[in-house]
Specification:
The structure is a homotetramer of 321-residue chains. Helix content of chain A is 27%, strand content 21%. Chain A is α/β, with parallel strands linked by helices. In chain A, the strands form 2 sheets. In chain A, strands 8-9-7-10-13-12-11 form a 7-stranded mixed sheet. Chain A has a 6-stranded parallel sheet with strand order 2-1-3-4-6-5, sandwiched between helices. In chain A, helix 2 (73-83) links the parallel strand 3 and strand 4 (87-90). In chain A, helix 4 crosses helix 7 (234-245). Chain A is globular and about 65 Å long. Chains in contact: A-B, A-C, A-D, B-C, B-D, C-D. The interface between A and B is large, with 52 and 52 residues.
Chain lengths: 321, 321, 321, 321
């Protein structure tokens, strides 16, 4: 069988680079076009390609597009490409509310909805970890919906993209740490709420989301304070999570004694989930800590996972462990 | 007037080094003895001293001791030195529950209790930030005591001390981030609870404390989710904080629009406090974010601040801004 | 064909961890035993194994040993295992002078000597880069042997191993940089000299080797100042290097305009080599800059490359690009 | 006496920020104006000032200007301000060849030339360390002028300024290391040559300068391979350096056994100089390693040192140790 021909739109960004890297080892897809407006004509490191401008990609020669353009541009390109008959995974936030019929793709939660689809919106990095961590607890009825879940998250700097901005210079970030977009002001809040609502099959639990900027290149850690219903505890939480993710190649449930760290997941497509009991408070409360690589499971790796489902490949093809 | 003669016990640790550095510029104290068991006889960088063993310090020639020995050893030494008539600031956790009559020294909260005392227990780094951030809110009656405060904290690695341990090697910490001692298992939990109780003048509000290990050398950021009483909001919180800390040289209240970052406080004795409103939850909730340098305001700087009060100096003497 | 059974001796060190990681994807070998004295009985992350003590490895069940024990212990173990009929790659410096008949294994230089051997000494990380960078220049007669080559090298901290030492704590290394073992005092100097002599087929050119400690986890960059014979220039150097390494899967020759950086090679088995002309000096001089990952091409990756040659596999089997 | 009124031109850059910080504690100068084109009107952190545009500084109200504008703009502004009767320290490279009569200001080498001058060109960060390290050796006749000095230098990222450029993003720099402007292509090469010539009182020794980019915020380490005349050795080098810098407050000569690291000097105005013998080469060769903080002794600290000499203050006023 011929390999499917891929166009990576926005291939000089961190996510685009990661896609090109993953696709080098994919058994059923190969990167035919990699786009960059600023570096058009230059060589794509590690390949025999040269960057072309997005407008110069001949869609007739492309089977599937991974669109990593800036938010705003990406969705428009993706819709146009999809209307031209090309399969599309859009990695921006533009289509995540289902615009143009796009399917929201977290395989471990909604695998069957993604399989065979032709337009998929790849989830945000923060929401991926939050939804995967909370889904087993919500589905098992362990979460007390009357109180907010506090979600304290920290991300490596590549999550902010590769555009030159003063605030992301090494001299600004090294040895620093800070919260940003606090108080539910982050643009992922709506996506998180929608995802929780879909999991709950109705009203989403309340939550407060506070992202922080870590002085590391990649990785997200999300520390979640989850109010439990009376009678529930860490044992039930671990069991529900184990049970829901049994056999999942990319979910690692750590049990009651271990919490994940970035090192466990960086450079892999894995999500590591740990739980801890909380003592000293009267109402039952659970700590649920999730780690993932923002560029792999939080972006390029999950995009290939979705593409594999869209194209009928083994879901893990080309992604490694 | 002759300068007071100081002994720094445990002077090769990060806190001890910082004390020696601060005291070089102090107008009323000078380091006469700096101890190290392993490096006795070697030169103390930046001074004309040589390290001596702790047992070889002639207490008769010392006016004040800063004890930075390991937890366990430090308190015993401090009590003995104090009984020998020497003033003591103990920087370990050994005396923070008031053992041997030690006064718990956070000047901005209990300045008058420290003034003129001869034995002071210097607070932990995490509790310093938490108590300073929450005190104005508790005292102003803004905190809803029926729900726990969630305290998500992150500290630079020097907070773990300078003893060689595999888990703190550069190769383990760089590009990593993780929670530890989660679920109220950290040894500072008791100190935090006692401090909150003292501020509240009775029962402390419940809290959950989750420390994380940051890949930076120094600095603590504490993101606190504070349930408010009905009718209270971020404006009242900022106002109460401003009002309580008016004129304080080391407290910087940022107002409603800014949150602090480590860069604002590292290498200074300052605590920066910011507040943010939280939208999208039905019960009133406040974000209170506090930043400080764990080695300065969280240890050596506050110790000198306490010593200044004990000896009758200007409280800011030698500490800088 | 059954896969060859592997024992990784010293599997909790950085090199041992990397070996276990690489071997997970190897088509012809699998890790049967992973040893640790301190963590015996505990699980080996990412596998279904548990660590055993080195003395408890039943050599009769092992086809090939990778010995990553501390310098001193490793060679003794390797010789004993080899005498017991097991194939051995020793990753310490113990056998690199040819002790017990061990072959020094840099495939790109002496591939045919390694093929089919049963005891191979895996080269040091610094010498690997130096010898691969200088070999084409020496063999092509471009180096002026009358003047020393200055070799200014910088390595990430994992090169110092995973044993707990104060000097390698995050708090000591972050934001620092320093030379060590300067003036040809490093233990690799003898290995470098022997390797250069073997390349030259006689007397080695003089050299001065100055290693530095970089605040990064992994990667080595070696900046070499190479005196050239009259008439030689950067063009001849690039051509000789291109020509010697044509078809080599792990050597990337960058040409006259680019110099390598750690990012080009980290997490891969590649060595990137760049050259630059030097202006403003009367005698011809060349800059040759080499980058490699100290844990992959500088240790575990090259060890698997050697093992592949020893066992008759494709040289790149399991190593990736 | 009234304090001298200062204008810091380009006060949002790393050097400008450092100047504002140093001047807060200066006994004889205070920052009256701090300029920024992009942040005009905003508050200057840690002061009661607001940024103004450079064109809006009323020079009639200014006693001394520190010009930290981009190379190209800075010299023009400095010359105009100087012609308007204001004293000027220009921190760009524009006037370092003596344009408009500017004096090149390294106090430890040419203190008497700076004293009382009204226009001073502040040296580059790399040249400052090189010239201070080599001056004692050249003046004592220890350097063999017939062979080049190899200068392998590494700088923290703040040396590249605070302008947003992709290559200096945290995501590009962290865990990376590379040479740049190799082969004597760096713009400091001419300044180094001129300085060495002035020290030598005639022809400068040849040299090769290779800067590298370190993943640290601040600090420069320069490892120099210095050919010695026959009979000279490390002892003579240490002695000459000690002797020349006896009593200098900002030069620390480490002796024969220690080499400096960034940690020794960062956040101070000090230059630390170490020497090591080289074994295994037939012609006498010395390693001379120099460390300094690129933003303090390499920029803002030395600028204030020069200003103190220009204005008749104690040379160390306001700079600290």
């Amino acid at each position: 069988m011929n390999k499917h021909s891929v166009a990576v739109l926005g291939a000089t960004g961190y996510t685009g680079q990661e896609l090109v890297r993953i696709l080098r080892d994919h058994p059923g897809m190969f990167t035919r076009f990699a786009t960059s407006e600023a570096e058009a004509g230059q060589a794509v490191r590690g390949t025999s390609l040269r960057y072309v401008k997005a407008a110069d990609v001949p869609l007739a020669e492309v089977d599937i597009v991974f669109a990593c353009l800036p938010h705003g541009e990406s969705g428009a390109y993706s819709i146009a490409a999809h209307e031209a008959g090309v399969k599309v995974v859009d990695l921006s936030s533009d289509l995540r509310a289902g615009q143009a019929g796009a399917e929201y793709g977290i395989p471990e939660l909604w695998r069957d909805c993604v399989r065979g689809k032709t337009l998929v919106a790849n989830p945000g990095c923060y929401p991926t970890g939050i939804l995967l961590g909370l889904a087993p607890l919500i589905r098992a009825g362990l979460v007390d919906g009357g109180k907010p879940v506090m979600i304290d998250a920290a991300s490596g700097v590549t999550g902010a993209g590769r555009t030159a901005k003063r605030e992301y210079l090494f001299g600004e970030i090294a040895e620093d740490y800070r919260a940003y977009a606090a108080g539910n002001a982050h643009r992922h809040v709506r996506e998180i709420g929608a995802g929780l609502g879909r999991i709950a099959g109705g009203e989403a639990p309340e939550f407060v989301f506070t992202p922080h900027l870590l002085p590391v290149r990649r990785g997200i850690l999300e520390t979640m304070y989850v109010p439990l219903v009376v009678g529930a505890g860490v044992g039930a939480a671990v069991e529900a999570t184990h049970s829901m993710y049994a056999g999942e190649p990319y979910i690692e449930v750590l049990g009651e004694t271990l919490l994940p760290s970035l090192r466990d997941v960086v450079n892999t497509n894995r999500v590591a989930i740990g739980h801890a009991a909380v003592t000293g408070v009267k109402d039952p409360l659970l700590l649920c800590v999730v780690a993932l690589d923002n560029l792999v499971k939080g972006a390029a790796g999950q995009a290939v996972q979705n593409a594999n489902l869209m194209l009928g490949f083994e879901e893990t093809a080309g992604i490694g462990r």
